[in-house]
Specification:
Layout lengths: L9 E5 L4 H12 L3 E6 L2 H13 L3 E6 L5 H15 L4 E4 L15 H28 L3 E6 L12 H21 L4 E8 L8 H4 L2 H7 L14 H8 L10 E4 L7
Parallel strand pairs: 1-2, 1-4, 2-3, 4-5, 5-6, 6-7
Helix pairs in contact: 1-8, 3-4, 4-5
Length: about 250
């Protein structure tokens, strides 16, 4: 399979300052896409954009809190005025502020998790779709998690939001497909990022990982090819699907 040709395509990637989001951004840039990268921290996402441009890619950075509607509205207003089109959206931003027993979760942590992990993708997608329709179609990829399929201990609400993200993926795919919008999700397993340090550094989790069919933690770069396929014309008949990328963790 040839590398995706994304020349002339405009792509928004949120949560792009590090980890999976950064890796996806670099992959899209390598295929020629014009990137708009967002994160809560303008400084950290600007570093990624600068690095991409130094390598010959096209990227701009913007601060945008994935759970704040005013930030989302301002972002897509900028995309519309500056580029006049949108072809790709990757909803990667996520949070998991609590690790522990489900009944120990505070209302504040609950609200924050739902705000970023569910409300964010919902309204990012809602803002993106009119621009995509104007552009003749587009592709949305939501970064969910295998926690949607096998709720992880100590992560009840995080797992719940990722299951909700799969439902959101399928709902938007069904509702907007005839307007040229494809919506899919990837489900990473345990990926070695700063976000997942509590898992990847846990001795019990490391022991479990060593017994997987692919006996290692994933790397952010392992997620890129799946996204490039889903946003490319090669996946023009693929929508509403979930691509599990977990080293076999969900096989049981």
């Amino acid at each position: 399979m040839n590398q995706a040709d994304l020349n002339g395509k405009v792509a928004v990637v949120n949560g792009a300052s590090r980890g999976i989001g950064e890796a996806i951004a670099r992959g899209l840039a390598s295929c020629g896409a014009q990137l708009i990268l967002t994160s809560r921290s303008a400084e950290s996402v600007q570093e990624v954009a600068d690095s991409i441009m130094d390598a010959g890619g096209k990227a701009v950075a913007m601060s945008c809190h994935a759970g704040k509607l005013d930030d989302i509205e301002a972002l897509f207003s900028y995309v519309n005025s500056e580029f006049g089109r949108l072809d790709i959206l990757v909803n990667n931003a996520a949070t998991n502020p609590f690790f522990g027993p489900a009944i120990g979760l505070s209302p504040e942590a609950f609200d924050k998790t739902v705000q970023v992990n569910l409300k964010g993708p919902y309204f990012f997608s809602s803002a993106a779709i009119p621009l995509m329709v104007k552009s003749g179609g587009g592709s949305i990829v939501n970064v969910a998690s295998i926690a949607a399929l096998i709720p992880l201990p100590g992560q009840a609400v995080y797992s719940m939001t990722k299951a909700g993200l799969i439902s959101l993926t399928r709902s938007f795919a069904k509702e907007y497909g005839q307007q040229g919008i494809r919506v899919n999700a990837i489900l990473p397993g345990v990926v070695k990022t700063r976000f997942a340090e509590a898992l990847t550094e846990d001795p019990q989790v490391q022991k479990w990982i060593s017994r997987l069919p692919v006996p290692r933690a994933g790397q952010p770069e392992d997620m890129v090819a799946g996204v490039l396929y889903l946003v490319s014309d090669q996946a023009s008949y693929t929508t509403g699907t979930t691509l599990v990328m977990d080293g076999g963790a969900t096989l049981g």
